Predict the 3D structure of the following.
Amino acid sequence: MEGEPVNVKEFQELARQALPKMYYDYYTGGAEDQYTLKENVEAFHRITLRPRVLVDVSRIDLSTTVLGYRVSAPIMIAPTAMHKLAHPEGEVATARAAAACNTIMVLSFMSTCTVEEVASSCDAIRFFQLYVYKRRDVCAQLLQRAERNGYKGIVLTVDTPRLGRREADIKNKMVAPQLKNFEGLLSTEVDDEEGSNLEAFAKETFDDALSWRDLGWLRSITNLPILIKGVLTREDALKAVEVGVDGIIVSNHGARQLDFTPATISVLEEVVHAVGGKVPVLFDGGVRRGTDVFKALALGAQAVLVGRPVVYGLAAKGEYGVKRVIQMLKDELELTMALSGCSSVKDITRSHIRTERERLQ
Ligand code: FNR
């Protein structure tokens, strides 16, 4: 690729050039046939826009709030594991970029910088993502550390009782480093000669008995608001509201878990309807353009989270690369709003888009 990237998709090629193949494949890949990986992006292409004209768009306000926290735009950083495999400064660089862009970063439970290092590096609003391990004491300790260090919310990932089958990682015999957060608590190094060490680690460590009942346990060990990440159906959205979560993230884990789940953008509205405004609904999966953010907001998301493009920005250009990725999405969203007749995010409504089903009717 020649010259500076002009859209977030172009960071992928820069990341490919910057990274060892094993890590690039880890960041890029999806589960099994990668049907859902493709769909997450392509389903956005099947939604078209219904712009309104002759609206005063001389001032556009992208800002919004998420769980009461003001952010410059409805674009947040999704939890993605092990940023030091992408860049030596790891999650600290990502957090600084989040602070510079005035948005929220969700720190992965599987981070390569500690909860404390990230907290002391900048004043970004941070949420902490949680995987529940069989060693519940380890989770409780990590949560307490996050709470003590000013993290503002817990994102409980619920789509990972086991790790999805990512065949590139199996072929590459993907090796995960010892994760610093767990030093003195738990070894994250496993030796699986056969395939992905990460998969072997997850199999040994993740608690596949986790169920709705455990939300009570989580409530008992934290005062922070709890969002659940990985909801794809009306049934689970209703259940989540019933057990009293503070927010829902519609996500299929960037298509890395169960292949042949639908694209997240195609189930967003189902979840939004089920929730009926009782708690905020956030969204991730396949967001690569400002128009994608606009479409997700039109379907009822309060904000979107971005996964791979952030990692690609980090791999290509460190903190600056992450800032560029967020800024590009913000600029594109602002232009989309101007050209659609929306001067604030509240103005983006369902009538600004047309889904494929509506077009065929
Ligand atoms: C993830 N994701 C993820 N989710 C989570 O809850 N905890 C984690 O540690 C990770 N790790 C992770 C690593 C990598 C390399 C990727 C690509 C993804 C899923 C992530 O939060 C998010 O759901 C997706 O990345 C969103 O899709 P896009 O934006 O990557 O298409």
About this structure: The chain has 14 helices and twelve strands. The mean pLDDT is 96. The first strand starts at residue 48 and ends at 49. The two ends are 41 Å apart (CA to CA).
